[in-house]
Design brief:
single chain, about 170 residues, mainly alpha, UraD-like, about 65% helix
């Protein structure tokens, strides 16, 4: 799809086309629709991030909770979105050794118990070892810092998805 296509869509089509850019959160595309037309993908991304920034804390938490754990139960059961499957596979998370899978499972559990939402990392450009290091580092943060970091990671993921979806 081109940016001109996105700018020319009605709201229903726009949400259908871009509703998955932020994991299982089409409300972001719906609210960003009013900011059309977008000069470029960066402007579209900025409008969508502005929607997240203006959202209530409860909506932001729901956005974080819409994300799957890395190599977690949803991945094992095959319940990830197509985008999440591609991203986790690209980072090698579908080829974890039993030891790596056990580490990820323990970190997922510890992180969720501590923060109440899943660990979120834009995994593009990371390998399994790097993901495990980042996970172990961030689980030591406080909740406020991780909430902000996860929202920033969600924004990065959205930009990667927009870049893959839209030709300027």
């Amino acid at each position: 799809m081109t940016l001109a296509d996105a700018n020319g869509m009605d709201e229903t089509a726009f949400v259908a086309a871009l509703g998955g850019v932020f994991e299982r959160s089409p409300w972001i595309a719906q609210r960003a629709f009013a900011a059309r037309p977008f000069a470029d993908v960066a402007a579209l991304h900025a409008a969508m991030v502005a929607v997240v920034d203006a959202a209530s804390a409860a909506e932001q938490l729901a956005l974080l909770r819409a994300h799957p754990e890395l190599a977690g139960r949803a991945a094992v059961r095959g319940e990830l979105t197509a985008d999440s499957t591609k991203e986790q596979s690209g980072a090698g998370l579908t080829q974890c050794s039993p030891e790596e899978f056990a580490q990820l499972s323990a970190l997922n559990h510890r992180y969720h118990e501590k923060f109440g939402f899943p660990f979120i990392l834009a995994v593009r450009g990371h390998d399994r070892a790097g993901i495990l290091r980042e996970f172990a580092r961030r689980v030591e943060h406080d909740r406020a810092a991780e909430f902000v970091e996860c929202l920033a990671q969600v924004a990065k993921i959205a930009r990667f998805r927009l870049d893959a979806l839209i030709d300027e």
